[in-house]
Amino acid sequence: MQQGQAPAENRRNKKASANSYSHRGRGRPEEERPMRMKSTQINSEPASPSFLANCVINGGLALLKPTHTRKLDVSTRKAYLTARRRHDHRLLLRDVNPWPGRTQITVPLSIEDQRLALSLARGSHPRRQNWEPSRGGKETSVREVNHGRYSSRCAYDRWGFVPTLKSFAIISRWGGRAALYRHHCGSSLVPAPRGWRWSADANGLRLVSIARPTDDFHPDSGDLRKGIRHIVHQAVVLREKRRAEAAKTRREKRLLLRGSGGVRVGLRDSLDAGNCPAGSLEFARRHGLDPDRRYAPARLLRLEPDNDRLKLAIAVAIRRHAKATPPDAAGAGSSGPNSISNVIAPA
After folding, report:
1. What CA–CA distance (Å, rounded) separates 61 from 70?
2. Which H, E and C letters describe 223-247, residue by residue?
3. ∠ CA 193-196-201, rounded to 5°
4. Which of 13, 127, 209, 315 could make a disulfide contact with 249, Cβ separation 3.0–4.6 Å?
5. Residue-wise pLDDT tens digits, 196-221
6. Is 290 found in the same domain as 182?
């Protein structure tokens, strides 16, 4: 009889224990419940007091600098690095914004990703035409744009189709020390190196120097997928190029507001001046300019009069125009000590 009562007694004990831990552990005293943190537990064990004091902020895992990490003791540093790897891995698996309230910044597409977006769009809609340049967005799709009627006599509207590829970034809540990049082919966490931080401006996502905020770089989707070393290398190369061009064109900047006889500025001039391709294309898109055309300096200066990088591109265009113009034609068009041809002529 005792053997037959054992299973019933076990079932009653299991039911009682289940009820005691229901409703989020109300049956257990508050002091007996251990702290549960998915980001700060190592090997399913509660975190140590040293770990909670140095590596946790507001209940979440903190992003420590390398200098702070080296100051931790061996066990705490090992626990932090393990928790950090797990935390970063979970961020890549989640397809939602891990930091609520942070803006999703659209990242322009590289040449390869533009071709990929167009190929995917044509595969989904093989009968459509009037394809426009590909752009980055929050999702991979095809956006329809109505350009209005073909003419005043035509009753039909002209529709264009913009291939959109998933390409956006989210700057971390840790002062721009990392950026989470979402791409059509996967996600990656791009940390900012020492002396740099992630931020955003009118041209989109940028990596800016902390010591010199004017030194920045706007990466595209290809740069972010290649990694932070490639991005920093490109930023340093373009910075040196801008400094060299600025040293050559100091005298030319004084004549930018006066008139520039036949000079036209294009995308190639901006790139030769050391400006990043993504930022130049975003400037053109923001002001409705065609990257394949050239524009007068006076029109560009009316858009952003205080943009030093725009003035640098205009100065490069002035030098290019002076080299392509014969001396006789330049002398006939303008003369005098204040003419552009005299200022940019080599000493």
Report:
1. 17
2. HHHHCHHHHHHHHHHHHHHHHHHHH
3. 130
4. 315
5. 999 998 889 999 999 888 888 999 99
6. no
**What is the rounded distance in angstroms from the CA atom of residue 180 to the CA atom of residue 170?**
5
Which 3 state secondary structure label does DSSP give 11?
helix
Contact between 86 and 39 under an 8 Å Cβ cutoff? The reply is: yes
- Judging by DSSP bridges, how do beta strands 216-217 and 204-209 pair with one another? antiparallel
Q: Which residue has the higher pLDDT, 186 or 346?
A: 186
What rounded mean pLDDT belongs to the chain? Answer: 77
Whether this model's pTM surpasses 0.85: no
End-of-domain residue from the set 188, 210, 240: 240
Among 275, 96, 120, which Cα is nearest to 187's?
96
Q: Is residue 15 part of a domain?
A: no
Residue recorded with tokens 């800016």 = 208
> 51: domain range?
34-93
Q: Is 269 in contact with 317 (CB distance < 8 Å)?
A: yes
Does pLDDT of 186 surpass 90? no
Q: Where among 211, 240, 269 does a domain terminate?
A: 240
Residues 316, 330: Cα–Cα separation, whole Å: 17
Which of 106-115, 158-167, 243-252, 310-319 comes out lowest in average pLDDT? 243-252
- CA angle, 224 then 229 then 231, to 5°: 45
The highest-confidence range among 11-15, 97-101, 219-223, 256-260, by mean pLDDT, is 219-223
98, part of any domain: no
Can you say how many angstroms the Cα of residue 40 is from the centroid of all Cα atoms in its chain?
A: 29
CA dist., res. 83 & res. 80, Å (int): 5
* Residue linked to tokens 């140095």: 54
Say if 4 falls within a structural domain: no
Q: What is the pLDDT confidence band of residue 81, given thresholds at 50, 70 and 90?
A: confident
Claim to verify: residue 110 and residue 236 sit in the same structural domain: yes
Q: Answer for the pair 334, 309: CB distance below 8 angstroms, yes or no.
A: no
Residues 6+ apart with CB under 8 A from 124: 142
Asked if 148 and 210 sit in the same domain, the reply is yes
Tens of pLDDT, residues 325-343 = 766 554 444 444 333 333 3
How many separate domains does the chain show?
A: 3
